[in-house]
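User: Okay, second chain of the day. Same drill as before: sequence in, structure tokens out.
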Amino acid sequence: MKIDAHVHVLDPKQFPYAPDVWYEPIGAEQGTAADLAQVMTYHGVQHAMLVQPNSGYGYDNRAMLSAIAKYKTEDGKGRFKGMAVVKNNASLGELQDLQAQGIVGIAMNAALLGVDFYADIEPLLAHLRELDMWAQMQVQHDQLLTLSPMLEASGAKLMFDHCGRPEPTAGVAQSGFQALLKLAETGRAAVKLSGINKCSVQQYPWADAKPFVDALVGAYTPQNLIWASDWPFLKAPARIDYGPLLTLFEALVPDAAARHAIQWETPKRLFGF
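Assistant: Same drill. Structure tokens below.
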């Protein structure tokens, strides 16, 4: 059994893209909730975390919320949960409304928007702490050095995308990645083993990214790591397919018990599936 902790729903026919978004996915970059459900069923994935994409939709969470509602089961738990995108000044009530619709956290993308964009999120982080929701952050290279003091002081649960997106050629000793490893000591941080291609300058199977994965497994242990595909692979520089990602994960984490924890037990516990 598996849970995919980072996928996107992009359905411009039913939910047209928002105006003035930074990028409009086309063709194979798009994927409806039904497309995703088929991919999951074929590969034995029971649940997925829908992450609101800055591409296409920005603050318009309707496509994701519709998918969560459509695939609810009779027990009310459903196949999907979500990470929404909101404005930095989102109110407690707004977050509570999203939480009631299956949203378990808020996605923030410093890798795209820069660290200065998130300089004023301390009240937002306080709301997330109060509601026991996740602050999900995508950073790259050394951005975490700037954000880490505020994130650590917030007391909020912290989720980091795509192995922290270290600079591939700078090694595990680079300052931003070391800051990510140190946050494991808080006991309230988790990392997605995903976007392996973003940690590499090579072609699949991105062998130069394995030291980063090994360091994360050592620091966070399988009890605070989760696996994700990043389907449908927006702006991928080369073709990526779901099956090879699952095969690659077996090579990156050869211990079967650790893989089961990362792909099932840990995300089930962290997200409440």
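The radius of gyration is 17 Å.

User: Thanks, on to the next one.
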